[in-house]
Amino acid sequence: MGTASSMLTQYDIEEVQEHCDNLFSQQEIVSLYQRFCQLDRNAKGFISSDEFLSVPEFAMNPLSQRLLKMVDGINFKDFVAFLSAFSAKATAQHKIELIFKVYDSDRNGKVSFNDIVEVLKDLSGSFMSDEQRERVLSQVLKEAGYTKDSSLTLDDFIKVLGQSELKMDVEIPVD
């Protein structure tokens, strides 16, 4: 795939398609590549945090700092793999895996009570006090069969969230 300014070959497109479990059509991959090249302003072949923050929707997202840890320096193939969780064709498990990574900011494979409180703080800002967040979270964990001292694994996340209809779909405009 060379530099970001080079063209994708049919082989590249198929390789990226395979890398993202065929969740995007070839046309969508070409559109994503065009967007990737727009973001990769210096044609380095990867997107930096600053380049991601140039996208207003990303910069305004209350979880942007957590997401930046996941995407800083991402190449095109991994960019598409990251976005595949937002595909309408992605499974609930695929979406939950991304959500888990957002919560597991220290990448230890476990999400603690404090990890979840920090995400809730990012999402709710000053609308809730720390005490309110902890009270709500304690109740939710209790209803799910966990305690404040529990550390949730990916399997726990899948068990808890797998029953819900997660809507994380993003439409990829195709020219």
UniProtKB/TrEMBL annotation:
The keyword Calcium applies. Keywords: Calcium. One of its GO terms (molecular function) is calcium ion binding. Transmembrane segments: none annotated. Residues 27-62, 91-126 form the EF-hand domain. Pfam families: EF-hand_7. InterPro entries: EF-hand-dom_pair (IPR011992), EF_Hand_1_Ca_BS (IPR018247), EF_hand_dom (IPR002048). This is EF-hand domain-containing protein. It comes from Arachis hypogaea.
